[in-house]
Structure formats: C-alpha cells, structure tokens
Amino acid sequence: MTVYQDDRHGGPRTILAAGCVLWRHTSTPHGGQGIEICLVHRSKYDDWSHPKGKLKRGEDTLSGALREVREETGHDCAPGPALPTVRYLANGGPKQVSYWAAEATSGTFRPNREVDRITWLTPPAARARLTQPRDRTLVDALLDALHTT
What we know:
Blueprint: E1 4-5, E2 14-27, E3 33-42, E4 47-49, E5 52-54, H1 61-73, E6 75-90, E7 93-107, E8 117-121, H2 123-129, H3 133-146
Parallel strand pairs: 2-7
Antiparallel strand pairs: 1-2, 2-3, 2-5, 3-4, 3-8, 6-7
Helix pairs in contact: 2-3
C-alpha cells in the first residue's frame, strides 16, 4: 500500500518514501581512515541509486528508511543525521523522499526482486556512478554531516 501526502489545493497526491545514504569506514592505501558509500543497482530501471522505497501505511519515515536499507542491501545500520529531503516527479506525479545518513553495522547482500547488486565506493566514485544528479547532492550532504572532506 503506497502512502500519499494529501495536497490541500486539489493537485496530485505526493508519494512518500524514505531512504539512507549507507556508509562504512574503510582503510585508505596510506593507513588512514576513509569511508565508502553503498549504492544499489535496480535492474528494472538499470540505474544506480541510494537504497530507498515507498512508506507503508502508518510507518514513520525513519523506520521506512531503515526497512528499505535492510530489504535492498541486506545490511542493518545505525541512523545518523537527517539529510536533505528530495522532491521530484515519478511516473508523472510528485514524490518526496526523506533521507538519513546511516552507518552499516552488519549484514550480507543477497540479490532480490528489486536490487540485483550493490557496490561500495569512495565518495567521488559514488558521485560519478549515481544515475540521477539529485542523488549526487546527497553524497555531499553526507560528507558535510560527517565533517569529512
């Protein structure tokens, strides 16, 4: 069941969704610490994006974001700061996706009906791989939230 936000002005109802910019610590070649960002590949759209999905009836946005990460990547995560909400048109109607930074804590990916593969990339490589420009701004927002350059 898709959750909608009613438009008080009689326009199309907004589809509500949530997701995370999933990240993990990694070692750099020079012995330092860096991060990697998880991207999901959706075979239906042949695109690379952050894990996200539509909210279920009665589900709050953070719970929905964590559920979607688990369903799409097989990973549990610790939510961090809220990131910018992204608004765009999907199938001719408005969609609003709330995002959080989330550190991966455990899990193993298994291909599923929505996501056939994932990849962990450095922030510059993730920014380059993302299909939609709107998703690239979330990489920058994550780095700002983590105070990482």
